[in-house]
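Notebook entry, structure prediction.
Reason for the run: the old model in the group folder had no record of what sequence produced it. Starting over properly, with the input documented here first.
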Amino acid sequence: MQNIVLVILLILALSLIVTVLMQRSEGGGLGIGGGGGNMSGRPPASPAAKFTWILGAGFMAASLALTIIAAREDGNNSLLNGDLTAPAASQSEDSTTPLGGNLLPPSAADGPATPPKAED
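New structure, fully documented this time:
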């Protein structure tokens, strides 16, 4: 179900891009300036603009549906549902570390680390 909604969302997004690019520019970014003598506001929406609104609403609905479906499917999974001690119990004591040495901190018997002596 999630894949079907995702394909529909992709088709809507591509259609929305094509529809917006095919529309005629109204000039003046965001409707600013270039008014002329007509002070009645915006002209009535063209069929392309109405179709763009329909595609935009469909895109938003498909995005919301995909979010709900994904949340419902992943809602049953949790880190706390599994046995958290299983990976630690499966390691053996004599396993080698990736660096080839013991990565545990030194014990009290090891003594403090001393810097190397400078050669004169």
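Summary: Residues 23 and 118 are 78 Å apart (CA to CA).
The old model has been moved to the deprecated folder.
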